[in-house]
Task: inverse folding
């Protein structure tokens, strides 16, 4: 069986079932499959539209190929989004992850460099002084010390190097954008995921259910933003104990000011690092409110709070008390210490 066999089926608009997709993915990861053949398959899949079964199958194979990250027993959350919305917003989920950790939530943040955005999670972390070449042991130590760690995708998914080159060449979102948040090597009981496809929110929650999440929130914001935006046209779904329930939020009911997506636009990694630091120092802006909202969703998914409105106030207090900024500074200090040890 060759990858062209599956590409031909997909090109005709035919969906692959779970087992067929597992076979196709194994061929993608086979060094003998050419990059052009992989690109053809990914583009055909994107044009057809990926299904929940196809995404779950890819996630399952990828996770089985990931390096093991031996974290202590416990409940962990990831708030990594799919990317690929093309809206060039600042790094909302990375900022929110720091706020969550400062509020006592244990975060294992999966991230990557920019693929189809101006500044990926790893890009802004590097601009802040947090390097991305942690060993697995470094990542676990950071988690134990600070309640948060950043798992840089190429470090934990060594087989993805060739795929990354193919994705860069395609230059547009593929199924790998959809699957990134599903392949965290740490076992997650709960998750918040922003996706760039409003029509797929409920199905994506079903994928999380297939993969064993006990509780999760999926959101697609204005214009397909892969975060909750400051408008009343976000699309939400809550997964809880196997049931998927759509829900709505009004910014006014949460005490937040509605704002257009353009108000959340970022820039280069250095630009976004400045926005992030100013925000954690308490500077009020649409950026600040967006982080409050997305942090509140994480707090609610994790079970720290009983309502998203309560989560807004917990997140606000974490920032204004200085705890979130202190958490960032501790993480930067940890990173600098690792580099010093390596230099000796």
Result:
């Amino acid at each position: 069986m060759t990858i062209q066999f599956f590409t031909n089926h997909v090109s005709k608009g035919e969906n692959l079932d779970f087992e067929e997709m597992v076979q196709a993915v194994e061929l993608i990861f086979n060094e003998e499959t050419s990059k052009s053949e992989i690109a053809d398959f990914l583009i055909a899949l994107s044009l057809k539209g990926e299904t929940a079964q196809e995404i779950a199958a890819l996630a399952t194979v990828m996770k089985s190929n990931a390096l093991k990250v031996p974290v202590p027993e416990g409940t962990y959350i990831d708030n990594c989004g799919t990317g690929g919305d093309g809206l060039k917003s600042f790094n909302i989920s990375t900022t929110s992850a720091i706020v969550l950790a400062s509020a006592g939530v244990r975060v294992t943040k999966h991230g990557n460099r920019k693929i189809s955005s101006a500044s990926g999670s790893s890009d802004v972390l590097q601009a802040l002084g947090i390097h991305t070449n942690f060993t697995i042991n470094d990542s676990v130590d950071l988690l134990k010390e600070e309640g948060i760690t950043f798992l840089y995708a190429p470090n934990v998914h060594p087989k993805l190097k060739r795929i990354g080159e193919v994705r860069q060449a395609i230059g547009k979102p593929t199924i790998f954008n959809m699957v990134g948040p599903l392949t965290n090597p740490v076992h997650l009981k709960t998750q918040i995921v922003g996706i760039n496809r409003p029509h797929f929110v409920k199905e994506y929650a079903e994928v999380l259910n297939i993969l064993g999440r006990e509780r999760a929130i999926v959101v697609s914001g204005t214009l397909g933003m892969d975060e909750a935006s400051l408008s009343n046209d976000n699309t939400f779904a809550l997964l809880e104990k196997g049931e998927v329930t759509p829900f709505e939020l009004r910014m006014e009911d949460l005490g937040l000011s509605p704002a257009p997506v353009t108000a959340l636009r970022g820039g280069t990694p250095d630009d976004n690092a400045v926005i992030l630091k100013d925000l954690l120092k308490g500077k009020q802006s649409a950026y600040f409110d967006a982080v409050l909202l997305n942090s509140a969703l994480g707090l609610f998914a994790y079970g720290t709070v009983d309502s998203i409105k309560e989560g807004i106030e917990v997140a606000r207090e974490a920032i204004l008390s200085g705890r979130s900024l202190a958490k960032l500074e501790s993480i930067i200090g940890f990173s600098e210490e690792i580099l010093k040890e390596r230099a000796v």
In short: The two ends are 51 Å apart (CA to CA). The CA atoms of residues 1 and 27 lie 9 Å apart. The chain has two domains: 3-49, 77-329.
